[in-house]
Amino acid sequence: MLTKRDLLKASAAMGGLAFGLGTGGEASAQMVDQLQLFVPAAPGGGWDQTARTMEQVLKTEKLINTVQITNVPGAGGAVGLPQFVNQWKGRQNALMVGGLVMVGALIANKAPVKITQTVPIARLTGEFEVLVVPADSPLKTAKDFAAAMKADPKKTSVAGGSAGGTDHIMLGMIGRALGVPAKDISYVAYAGGGPALAAILGGHVAAGISGFGEFGEQIKAGKLRALAISAGTRQPEIDVPTLKEQGIDVELFNWRGVFAPPGTAGAQRDALIALVEKMAGSASWKDQLKKRDWTPILLTGDAFATYIQEENDRITAILKDLGLAS
Fold first, then answer.
1. 307 has pLDDT over 70
2. Measuring CA to CA, which residue among 87, 71, 76 is closest to residue 111?
3. How far apart are CA 297 and CA 184, in angstroms?
4. What DSSP line would sit under 240-295, residue for residue?
5. pLDDT for the residue 37
6. Separation CA 281–CA 288 (nearest Å)
7. Which among 5, 54, 51 has a CA at the least distance from the CA of 285?
8. Which residue ranges form the domains of the chain, and what is each CATH number?
């Protein structure tokens, strides 16, 4: 059993993480002992992988003793978020993992709660999108794709994930940048990367959009041609130009981050931010980023809160153009 001295030492080592769950040593013990991670998605997906990687790193770096993960899947986070906002309100040792997909899903599903009702703590990682065509496609560059889309957008069909998801949002952004009316964009939504890949390779669509990791092996094997990535700058060890350098002013990261429940403020919020910053700066976290091909895009506190509001506004506008939001 931990003594009061042990608890105080642990609290100091965690940069002041222990706070206000009750009084005195009880507060410190609960916070140091367990962090609760809420994942509004099924086990095995990207958000769940993020949560379990956080658990591993936090334990390895001795920043926390135990982590409890709760999965509540459904509708890109639209099922889980109301539970986090309403039932987890006031929990002082809790974080929810979410990301860009949730922003779009909440808007498209006209969810009664918004991501802006949470307390943004940190943006952690991002994966850029890639625009691909079959290897034998006459489209050699993103400029070729842009010309084809402008000439006949309905024939320039593009496969991707669920309607309103990151892939669909990216095509909407490309259309907007090119001046192509959203109603003319031809997007074919698939339940997952496998069916979308089959459609692209089978020539059922002109192109495809997904996270780079989804198509990476097929690109390396020469079955798909990567026309452009949605990163702001060229990525190390990836010989694919960006959309921006080919005259299409679009930048998009499928980002993931963590949020605290409503009511988290003051020293409590600061301690959670400090915990995540310490985790993100650790050697264990950097090793996991490299292993999983995750790009670090850390943004915390007020800056992240501002980013969330801007992202919500931007995605709302795109989905309105696509007829998926009112």
1. yes
2. 76
3. 34
4. --BSGGGT-----EEEEEEEEPTT--HHHHHHHHHHHHHHHTSHHHHHHHHHHTPE
5. 97
6. 12
7. 54
8. 4-125+256-321 (3.40.190.150), 127-246 (3.40.190.10)
pLDDT at 174 over 80: yes
- Structure token pair of residue 92: 């002082």
What is the pTM assigned to this prediction?
Answer: 0.79
The residue with tokens 């095995």 is 44
Bin 31: left if φ > 0, else alpha if -120 < ψ < 50, else beta. Answer: alpha
Give the model confidence (pLDDT) of 256-283 as tens digits: 999 999 999 999 999 999 999 999 999 9
CA distance 262 to 86: 8
Answer whether residue 115 shows pLDDT above 80.
Answer: yes
Residues in the chain: 326
CA distance linking residue 93 with residue 77, whole number of Å: 20
| Amino acid at site 236 | P
